[in-house]
Amino acid sequence: MVTLADIRSARKRLDGVVLRTPLLPLKLGRPDTWLKCENLQRSGSFKLRGAYNKIASLSPAVRKRGVVAYSSGNHAQGVALAGQVFGIPTTIVMLDQSMAHKVEGTRSYGAEIVFGGKSSEEIKARAEAIAAESGRTLVRPFDDALIIAGQGTIGLEIVEQLKDVKAVVVPVGGGGLCSGVATAVKSLRPRVKVFGVEPAGAPKMSESLKKGELVTLPGTNTVADGLKPVRASEITFEHVRKYVDEVVLVTDEEILAATRHLVLKEKLVVEPSGSATVAAILSQKVKLPKGPAVAVISGGNVDLRAVPGLFGDSAAVPPASASPTLSLK
Question: Are 153 and 226 part of one and the same domain?
């Protein structure tokens, strides 16, 4: 299990690399609700935290050989950017149907991209094969204690930024973010409630908790592409089972409504995966205690043209543009 000491060590590695993202008040909706804006993080999501922590922990000789990762998009960009910072070869295996803007963003950081299948398990197998053949280190998206510890630094920041926080709501894909945040929050504030949120079309953690063992879904179907793994992992399952009070499900309609709310009312560019927590709060799927609550906004790598109803039937659709190259050097 990842410890508070592991998360604090990760924060030291990340110092000067990741942004301490702001905690902004939700303007419309539940009073005393705050948004932890990882959509404003470098690479556009929280994923840089875990990816950099993992790569920074490698010995110089091992790191020099390069890294391999698999991802639908946000982990891809986090690993690619971390690889660019260290100046090492980086190969990312992405889904055949990965969002074009996430592919472009990953490529802009200098990563080699391989399209490896139609499910999270298929691209995982392809990445493992490439890593074995090349001698490079595999940087998993959530099934790794160093990845979880890096994501857990968000929990440290939340507790410091909002000392009287009573609840934290976190999206669940493979469970790395939720595991890390919950570990940090519960270790420092055991009475704070921690809730996970999954799409109804990808309930891998909910089903695992229900059955008391890790399960693999036959498939997933959701607009939240970052929350689509068909399987969590033993390590994330154990962390969620120990530290998370409840995992709730939200529909795609609720996720899209929250995305439109965040863009149009809160003036924040957020992808559907990052909107899931706000969807759970606005739809009251999560029963929050009285007092300050924080919704983790996990990412902002969204093609706004793909959000139904955002521009209206008569609005002109803005042109697509490639993500710019960003260097932390």
Answer: yes
Reference 203, options 248, 151, 142; nearest CA is 248
CATH number, position 19: 3.40.50.1100
Give the model's pLDDT for residue 326. 32
**Which residues partner with 128 through β-bridges?**
none
3-state secondary structure of 193: strand
Write down which residue in 139, 173, 205 finishes a domain. 139
Catalytically annotated residues: 47, 298
Residue 28 confidence (pLDDT):
93
Q: How many domains does the chain have?
A: 2
Please give the backbone phi and psi of residue 265, each rounded to the nearest 5 degrees, phi first: -100, -40
pLDDT bin (cut points 50, 70, 90) of residue 319 is very low
| Residue of 189, 140, 144 whose CA lies nearest to 166 | 189
State pLDDT tens for residues 142-155. 999 999 999 999 99
